[in-house]
Amino acid sequence: MPTSRLPGFHNLTRAERLARIVAETGLGEEQAARLARAAEVDGDLAEMLSENVIGVMGVPLGVATNLIVDGEEVLVPMASEESSVVAAVCNGARACRATGGVTTEADAPRMIAQVQLIGVSDMAATRAILEDRAEEIAAICNACDPVLVERGGGFRTFETRVAGEFLVVHLIVDVRDAMGANAVNTMAEALAPHLESWTGARVGLRILSNLADRRLVRARARWRAGEIGAGMVEGIVAAYAFAAADPYRAATHNKGIMNGIDAVALATGNDSRALEAGAHAFAARSGRYGPLSRWQRDAAGDLIGTLEMPMAVGIVGGATRAHPTAQAALAIMGATSAGRLARVMAAVGLVQNFSALRALAGEGIQRGHMSLHARNVAIAAGAEGDEIERVAREMVARGEVREDVARALLHGGKG
Q1: Which end of the chain, C or N, has fewer beta carbons within 10 A?
Q2: What pLDDT, on a 0 to 100 scale, did the predictor assign at position 367?
Q3: Nearest-5° angle of CA 59, CA 65, CA 67?
Q4: H or E segment to which residue 118 belongs
Q5: What is the rounded CA–CA span in Å between residue 278 and residue 210?
Q6: Strand pairing partners for 200?
Q7: Exposed, middle or buried: residue 101 (CB in 10 Å: 0-12, 13-18, 19+)?
Q8: Residues belonging to the active site
Q9: 123 and 100 co-located in one domain
């Protein structure tokens, strides 16, 4: 039986780690060789970005076309293993080009760091103490990152809030073109001993919040009824009403938005997990989970879509700076600031949502999705080379995109 207790595993070379995994798990020689080959180009970089690396999992990098954001044409790199995600943006963006594409706006790039105070006996008195120390709090925080301050960012203000039995100090920090986690975490940790000294309370957690509701981005677009059909406008509005009424539907509605946003985040080296956490927390801010976007019909009968959500992304630091593919993606997009990147990502999320709703309100999600997914199914069934396209085409023609059908077609059967 294999063991997961592998002392010193992190000290081994990549090849040695892979060999150890083969020895422990009985991984096949062909599978091990494939892992080794996949890491030949970017394996060394991967080891700088992660831990205990044995290979590199490649994700296709596609480019969404047709998008206009704030009057500017933009090509958007998207890293996704699902072809329908990229295709949805291309198609949805084309459908609103005649009305000017997507217009957006973004808040200042302000992040929140939380410092938890434990054992506060008098909330009001402790708050007053901190208010009297406002200038010192600002000075301590800004001393943590003079470069950020020189670039126009830095500490902006602080707030206190009661959360259960705790008093929580929120540090509001303008992080400029960074995602900002490192900057605000450093400030929170530097301030912690001072808060203990001033208040007599004990500091617990000191960490950023991924509910970045001081860093919202908004997007809006119009699709003409003459372009998509009056019936489709009604169908999409009804689909939105369903999401607004039912959290089970709202979760999938928002997943459609995040399909696009996560793909751009991955392509640019941004933290998709943080974006997901912030988006879903924001969707539940009223106490009930709801849709991040809104859809309605205007006086002319056209479809109007709007989106508002947190967008904590950066173009400096972390994997964004370290990974050459991320840098290339930003260059293709022309994203020279975190704000521009955030606005483009919001536009992608809104257009992605439109395409998903159009499919759902029309022919259903499976027909278009499975047609694009057919190649993946053929590969999973063992198709290679020219067989992949042949099998995929036949499954789509039959309307049966399933692995068992693909296997039968490969072996000359009728499925």
Answers
A1: N
A2: 57
A3: 120
A4: strand 110-118
A5: 5
A6: none
A7: buried
A8: 82, 255, 271, 369
A9: no
Encoded amino acid at 55, one letter? G
Tracing tokens 């434990």 back to the chain, one arrives at 118
185 and 238 assigned to the same domain: no
Domain of 375, in residue numbers: 367-410
372, 87 Cβ separation under 8 angstroms: yes
Question: Which runs of E-coded beta strand occur in 277-396?
Answer: 293-297, 303-310
d(CA 310, CA 289): 15
Q: Can you tell me the distance from the alpha carbon of 278 to that of 200, in angstroms, rounded to the nearest whole number? A: 32
Number of domains in the chain: 4
Task: Report the C-alpha gap between 182 and 222 in whole angstroms.
Answer: 38
Burial tier of 396 (Cβ tally within 10 Å: 0-12, 13-18, 19+): middle
Residues 234 and 261 in one domain: yes
Q: What angle do CA 56, 342, 349 make, to 5 degrees?
A: 80
Contact 354, 314 (CB under 8 A): no
List all residues 6 or more positions away from 148 whose beta carbon is below 8 Å from its beta carbon. Answer: 154, 175, 176, 178, 183
Whether 247 and 101 share a structural domain: yes
**Nearest partner of 38 among 19, 20, 22, 14, judged by Cα:** 14
- Residue 284 maps to a domain: yes
Distance CA 375, CA 176 (A): 42
Calculate ∠ Cα 105-343-321, nearest 5°: 135
Q: What is the spatial distance between Cα 310 and Cα 372, in angstroms, rounded to a whole number?
A: 31
How is residue 41 annotated by DSSP? Answer: T
Residue 245 lies in a domain: yes
